[in-house]
Amino acid sequence: MSGLISDYNFELPDELIANRPLSARDASRMLVLHRATGAIEHRHFRDLTEYLQPGDLAVLNNSKVIKARLFSADERIEMLLLEPLGGKRWKCLVKPGRKMRVGDSCSVAGTQAIVREIFPDGERALEFDDEPDLDRFGSMPIPPYFKRDADAEDTDRYQTVFAETPGSVAAPTAGLHFTPEILARIPHAFLTLHVGIGTFMPVKAERIADHHMHEERYGISAATAHAINSAKRILAVGTTTVRVLESQPPGLITPHTGSTGIFLHPPMTLQRVNLLLTNFHLPKSTLLMLISAFAGRERILNAYAEAVRERYRFFSYGDCMLIL
Predict the structure, then answer these.
(1) DSSP string of 185-252?
(2) For residues 162 and 190, is the Cβ–Cβ distance under 8 A?
(3) For every one of its 324 residues, what pLDDT tens digit does the chain have, with 9 covering 90 and above?
(4) Which three-class secondary structure state does DSSP give residue 62?
(5) Which of 26, 85, 206, 238 has the maximum number of C-beta atoms within 10 A of its C-beta?
(6) CA–CA separation, 201 and 98 (whole Å)
(7) In CATH, which of 3.40.50.1970, 3.40.1780.10, 3.30.1240.10, 1.10.10.10 is domain 5-65+142-323?
(8) CATH class of 69-137
(9) Which of 282, 276, 289 is nearest to 321 (CA)?
(10) Are strands 188-193 and 275-279 parallel, antiparallel or unpaired?
C-alpha cells in the first residue's frame, strides 16, 4: 500500500521542465506504457492512431481557459479569478491578502472590486461594479513553474484547438497536442470540466488519504453520454476527463451538470477508462497519484525514470504519455 506522499516523489532536473511549447502542437514525443507488462515504447504523438481500435472513443475536455490573472490599476494587488459566484461576484485568490480585507476595494480591469467575504482557506469573494474586462486587462494564468509572465504565444498555445466553454484557470494540457487534422481522424466526444486550482494544490498531508480536493464544475451533454455508452473502449484525454468519468455512478452515463471533488489514488482502480493520454506531472502531485491508480505506482515511477533518462519534456508544455 502506497499511502504516503513520499511514495510519489521522483527526481526531475530543472532543465526538463518545458516553459515554452514546441513549434508544432503534434510534434511532442509520446512514451507508451503497457500496463499489463510494464513494457515501454518511445514514439511521437502523431503515432496515437496506431494504438486505437474500431469502437474506441476519445473523450476530451473542451473547457476554455479564461484570462483569469488580473492586477489592480496601481499594480499593487494581484488577483486570480477562480470561479463565478453569481451577481458579479467571483471567488478569487488575492496577493497580498493583507491589502484586501472585508470591505477593502480597488480599481481593476476597468471597474471596481470590493471584498465581500474571506473564506476559511483565504480565498476572497470579490464583487465587481461591472463584469471585469478579461480580454482587455487579463492575462493567461500560466503555471508558476514557467518562471515568466504570460505573453501573446500563451494566448494561443495554452489553449486547446477545440476549447469552447470558458471557465478554466488552467489548461487541460493533454489536449494541447491535438491539431484539427489529428482530431478529425479519431472518433471523439467532448465533455466539460472547468479546471480550478484544486487539481494543482500541493498535498500537505503526509498521508494522502487525508488530502481534500476542491470541487470542480463539469457538464456532460446528451450526445456525449450516448457516444460513451456506445463505445467499446474509452480513451480519456487528460486527468480532468478521467475525474469526470470516474465520478459518475455505476451504469450508463447520463447527461447532466454537476461538480466533483473526487480524489483518485491507489489502491483505487479506474472503472470507466481503458486508455489514458496524459502529460508528465509534478512530483508528489494528485495527478501523479491518479495515473498511479490506473497503472500502478511502481510502473508509473519506472516510466517516469525512463522519461527522465530519455530527456522527455515535463509538465504543461511538455511531452505526453499513452497508458494502455
Answers:
(1) TS-EEEEEE---GGGG----SSBGGG--PPPEEEEE-HHHHHHHHH-SEEEEESHHHHHHHHTSPSSS
(2) yes
(3) 578 999 999 999 999 999 999 999 999 999 999 999 999 999 999 999 999 999 999 999 999 999 999 999 999 999 999 999 988 999 999 999 888 999 999 999 999 999 999 999 899 999 999 999 999 999 999 999 999 999 999 999 999 999 999 999 999 999 999 999 999 999 999 999 999 887 667 788 899 888 888 889 999 999 999 999 999 999 999 999 999 999 999 999 999 999 999 999 999 999 999 999 999 999 999 999 999 999 999 999 999 999 999 999 999 999 999 999
(4) coil
(5) 238
(6) 22
(7) 3.40.1780.10
(8) mainly beta
(9) 276
(10) unpaired
Name residue, grid cell 512514451. 31
Q: Identify the sign of the CA torsion 5, 6, 12, 14.
A: positive
Euclidean distance between CA atoms 308 and 285, whole angstroms? 17
The residues near 209 (Cβ < 8 Å, ≥ 6 apart) are 3, 265
Q: Exposed, middle or buried by CB within 10 Å (0-12, 13-18, 19+), for 324?
A: middle
The answer to whether 55 and 192 have CB atoms below 8 angstroms apart is no
Q: Kindly list the domain boundaries of the chain, sorted by start residue.
A: 5-65+142-323, 69-137
